[in-house]
């Protein structure tokens, strides 16, 4: 396992992070605990969760269940210090949590305390904002994205209020570091500016979707990441399982994520199947497992701090963890570049 620096913190994180969003719906508590044990045995030191989890589906009665499962593992194993723990606070649009209200100073205070209790710990290593209050172009919102309705002063006032509370939580020892998720270049830059001007915690990471099929991070965000040391925590490196090849236009395995969410949150389009075939062809020509190639490509990007993997079976997890041992040759990277130009935005 290789390890990368988390921003300017001096913390080293495994280049593969164990995601947890299926624990409590598609996976039992015992299965979640087994996944943690296996991941740590492979050198993973980073687990990501959220108060919203589990997903598939998101249900109000399940909110926080995944954090409880992780907290039970900490209590049982006594290995809290072996894990860098990240969680997230929900906001606008997540109706199952606080009726979809915005992130405010008050919800940060309440959210931190509730997560700490469920996680059975006294500190959260990385506390992330799951989605900006103003919205963003992520989750296929880029097709109709229009920022012209955003109120600049109100947006900045809201951000400063939240950041000041994050600062109080850090001072109280409940949070170590602050991160973003589903953010934009402007938004990340504004968080950094407000932190600098007000001597408040600096964002150390940005958790956005990134894979062979979803490459919004490649341009402006990549440049910001490089200059400002705000590394990418890449979620859905397998594009919700599409890059594994287990799905087809008429193929949906029982009890899979697609059996619950038919479009995989609008990732399934007529264009996606040709792109998947192109990348699977690259893997086949070079004798690579397509899952491991896809994850290894994400971790090879200069701005990636860690790629978040998730699994519903131990065999899936073992395959994904195997990507840590793979270094892609220049020939593979060149073939991937050709496939990308042929299929630039499949969803």
Give structural notes.
With 347 residues, the chain is α/β, with parallel strands linked by helices. The chain has one domain: NADP-dependent oxidoreductase domain (TIM Barrel), CATH 3.20.20.100. It has 11 helices and 10 strands. An 8-stranded parallel barrel has the order 3-4-5-6-7-8-9-10, surrounded by 6 helices. Helix 1 runs parallel beside helix 10. The longest helix has 20 residues. The protein is globular and about 55 Å long. The mean pLDDT is 97.
What is the averaged pLDDT score?
97
Label the overall shape: globular
Provide the spatial order of strands within the biggest beta sheet. Answer: 3-4-5-6-7-8-9-10
Instruction: Quickly count the helices.
Output: 11
Number of domains: 1
Computed structural class: alpha/beta
Strand proportion, as a percent range, falls in: 5-15%
Largest beta-sheet details: 8 strands, parallel, barrel
Alpha-carbon Rg, integer = 19 Å
CATH superfamily: NADP-dependent oxidoreductase domain
Number of strands: 10
Query: Which CATH top level class fits?
Result: Alpha Beta
- Name given to the CATH architecture: Alpha-Beta Barrel
Q: Segments where pLDDT lies below 50 for 5+ residues?
A: none
Order of helices and strands: EEEHEHEHEHEHEHEHHHEHH
CATH topology: TIM Barrel
* Proportion of residues in helical segments: 25-40%
